[in-house]
Design a protein that fits this description.
Blueprint (H helix, E strand, L loop, with lengths): L4 H11 L7 E3 L8 H9 L3 E3 L3 E7 L2 E7 L4 E3 L15 H5 L35 H23 L1
Parallel strand pairs: 1-2
Antiparallel strand pairs: 3-4, 4-5
The structure holds flavin-adenine dinucleotide.
The site of flavin-adenine dinucleotide has 10 residues, from helix 4.
Amino acid sequence: MLANGETAFEMARLIDHWSSGMTLFTNGPMNMEKAQVEKLQAKNIRIIETPIRALEHQAGYLQKVHFEDGSHHALKALFARVPFAQSSAIPKDLGCAFTEMGHIQVNDFKKTNVPGIFAAGDNTTPMRAVAAAVAAGTMAGAMINHELIVEDF
Ligand SMILES: Cc1cc2nc3c(=O)[nH]c(=O)nc-3n(C[C@H](O)[C@H](O)[C@H](O)COP(=O)(O)OP(=O)(O)OC[C@H]3O[C@@H](n4cnc5c(N)ncnc54)[C@H](O)[C@@H]3O)c2cc1C
């Protein structure tokens, strides 16, 4: 796992459920409380602080982490919390408001701040899961249908 600080501790205890024998790369001096480090070590999570120079892959499959000191570490997968970004500029162009984390701001009915524009799914929430996206899309669909009926009737 590639992380440091509070994020490293939170991610490590989450991912330790899925993947045992994990190594944490902090890419520089670790920035965690002593108690947190002790908890990670008690779960046999190895911590490597050496700064990273490069990630090596073959056809997109990770092979190694290369460190600034010339050493390397072979691996098959790397967990990391990459920053969230919208993949479409349409909501911004339409004037939709965004949360601090960059998600489209919606109310419980999936309405945005722009009349007639609804949003649902990953673009509105950090809770990324198919079931959540389907539920949000169902709500948005029902509310759009309702608005159209009210407008027409
Ligand atoms: C590697 C990975 C593993 C995952 N595993 C799970 C899992 O096990 N269980 C689970 O519940 N969830 C999982 N998820 C999360 C789940 O895939 C998402 O929460 C879900 O797909 C969100 O649905 P969505 O419709 O909001 O967005 P998306 O599925 O991302 O759909 C958005 C669509 O909009 C299209 N689009 C973007 N811009 C434009 C544009 N300008 N014009 C037209 N189309 C556009 C995109 O091409 C895409 O098809 C996983 C996600 C990833 C990346």
